[in-house]
Amino acid sequence: MKGYIFDLDGTLVDSMWVWEDLAAVYLQTKGIKAEENLSKELQLMTMTDAIRYLKEKYVIQDSLAQVRTEVYAIVRRRYRQEVAAKKGARACLERLHTQGMRIGVLTACERVCAEEVLKRNCWNIWTLSQAVRSSPMISRTDVCLSLCLPCCIRIRQKRCL
Question: How far, CA to CA in Å, does 19 sit from each of 28, 114, 130?
Fold first, then answer.
């Protein structure tokens, strides 16, 4: 193997909780109580679809752009201040790097979130990683084609794990 691609969220950093209650936290800022199964309803949606769904279902008067701005502000704050590296992630990446392996990192969140959490928690991954690919506009089911393949190309490896 010549290259390794890691998913940022849930693999390198403990960030799944950010997404699990994001809609409820946002709605709370509006004085709205979220339904119990909301997180499950939104789980496979893109952020754009989830924001549209929240706006329509909970009759939020703000524009889609305003809702998006407010939701992403919550995400950015959490990544900047609260998301922690997973135990062993740093050592693993450093070991692969010293072995000459090329490293890519994927995330479905905004690139700025990935940059902030990696710089704060993780090390020196910015210098270790040859590619950080992000796409908040894709669904979880589209990650492989939308992010993995371009990341392999970016780190110039045909054989990636």
Answer: 15, 14, 26
Q: Residue 161: what pLDDT?
A: 43
Q: Please check whether residue 6 is in contact with residue 103, taking contact to mean a CB–CB distance below 8 angstroms.
A: yes
Distance CA 156, CA 139 (A): 25
Closest CA to 161 of 112, 79, 110, 92: 92
Higher pLDDT, 69 or 122: 69
Nearest to 114 by CA among 123, 105, 101: 105
87 C-beta neighbours (distance < 10 Å), count: 8
Per-residue pLDDT, 64: 95
Other Cβ atoms within 10 Å of 15 Cβ, number: 25
Give the H/E segment covering residue 18.
Answer: helix 16-20
Check pLDDT > 90 for residue 82: yes
Q: How much of the chain, in percent, has pLDDT values that exceed 70? A: 74
